[in-house]
Write a structure and sequence with these properties.
Elements lengths: L9 H12 L4 H6 L7 H9 L9 H8 L3 H19 L24 H16 L2 H14 L12 H14 L1
Helix pairs in contact: 1-3
């Protein structure tokens, strides 16, 4: 018999906890959608049987009075867990809403901080090399981080960048 991993239910558990905290039944929550969805659909979402369709995210965030970024972060984490399982890798260490995840490299991050840092990272990735180097230098200085070689650059390229940065100072 094949041992199948349990479905991750981060999103479903979150929906259930918020719904119950707000005193909504599954039926009442379902009626807030346009068109309304069935109690069975809400139950399937909460049990992790049915994935949350993207077109339902705005209605759900409004009904549960949560930030869309918070729900999207949970969806991303759940997807990463599912993907890791399908690739035959151990589950990725993911932060939990109630505390750190298992694993030596676990990290607990609030949804607001996650959304902010994701925005910073996305902007960094899209920036040109000079802007990335300036950002790295500022972070190293302000946050007292050790000097590092930017990803994807050889030590020779890093030395050139340091020389340029020193000349500009």
């Amino acid at each position: 018999m094949v041992d199948t991993p349990k479905r991750p239910k981060l999103v479903g558990n979150f929906i259930r906890q918020r719904r119950e905290a707000m005193g909504l039944s599954q039926r009442a929550l379902g009626l807030l959608f346009t068109p309304p969805v069935t109690t069975q659909f809400i139950s399937n979402l909460e049990r992790g049987v049915t994935p949350l369709p993207p077109n339902h995210v705005p209605t759900l965030t409004q009904a549960l009075q949560v930030n869309e970024g918070e729900l999207m972060a949970l969806l991303e984490r759940e997807y990463a867990i599912k993907l890791s399982g399908r690739l035959g890798k151990e589950s990725v260490a993911t932060p939990s809403l109630n505390g750190p995840a298992a694993g030596p490299a676990s990290l607990t991050v609030s949804p607001a901080d996650y959304t902010f840092m994701k925005g910073v990272y996305d902007a960094y990735r899209l920036a040109d090399r000079k802007t990335r180097q300036a950002f790295t230098t500022v972070c190293e200085s302000i946050l007292n981080l050790p000097k590092s070689i930017p990803a994807g650059e050889s030590s020779e390229e890093a030395e050139e960048l340091e020389a340029v940065a020193e000349k500009q100072s």
